[in-house]
Write a structure and sequence with these properties.
This protein is mostly helical. The chain is 67% helix and 2% strand. It has seven helices and two strands, in the order H-E-E-H-H-H-H-H-H. Strands 1-2 form a two-stranded antiparallel sheet. The radius of gyration is 16 Å and the shape is globular. It starts with a helix and ends in an 8-residue tail after the last helix. It binds cytidine-5'-triphosphate and magnesium ion. The site of magnesium ion has 2 residues, from loops.
Length: 168
């Protein structure tokens, strides 16, 4: 899941520039808000895909070291995980704006799982066979339990070092 975890953090560091919604509103509210930018989305996706390819390159020694055959990422799987994480997060902003939450407002549950759901959906869409053999029911269960914990932890760190304005 690392190629799905890193894009949102990369977007925080790279964000800024033109918002995806171009400032447009739907009803009283922004469609997505200034927190979802083209640059953040592009950089986040590229960093996630790059990480997947980097992990492929070191798969043999790491699998040998942990004594367990770790998965490699075919390009469609890497793109699905990385871009899917960004799309899930963008979808969450859409839902937040529709429910009246301003940019940066917390939405417990959604904030912790939006990118996982997006990443898994696009991984299954772009690389179905790979996803079916990689994300077995047991693996999926672990992902859905561990990801929210990791997300809360890394965002508190990002907030403490000043990379994020809120600790979520
Ligand atoms: N970011 C970006 N593009 C994205 C996702 C994130 O540029 N697709 C950057 C923005 O600078 C954003 C920051 O990363 O402010 C933090 O991301 P996030 O917490 O997802 O956005 P919020 O600003 O909190 O906005 P929202 O309420 O819509 O989630
Ligand atoms: Mg936020």
């Amino acid at each position: 899941m690392l190629p799905a975890y890193v894009p949102n953090n990369a977007a925080v560091l790279a964000g800024g520039g033109r918002p995806i919604d171009g400032g447009r509103t739907w009803g009283e509210r922004r469609v997505l808000g200034d927190g979802k930018t083209w640059r953040g989305t592009a950089v986040g996706t590229l960093v996630g895909v790059g990480l997947a390819l980097g992990l492929n390159a070191v798969n043999d020694p790491i699998s040998a070291a942990v004594g367990f055959q770790l998965p490699t990422f075919p390009l469609p799987a890497a793109v699905g995980l990385a871009f899917g994480a960004m799309v899930g997060d963008i979808g969450a902003s859409f839902i937040k704006r529709r429910s009246g939450r301003e940019r940066g407002a917390a939405f417990p549950g959604l904030d912790q799982l939006d990118f996982v759901v997006g990443a898994l959906l696009l991984a299954f869409a772009f690389a179905a066979d790979w996803a079916l053999s990689t994300f077995t029911p047991g693996v999926l269960a672990v992902i859905l339990i561990i990801t929210p914990l990791l997300h809360v932890g890394t965002n508190i760190i990002a907030f403490k070092i000043g990379a994020k304005d809120e600790p979520w």
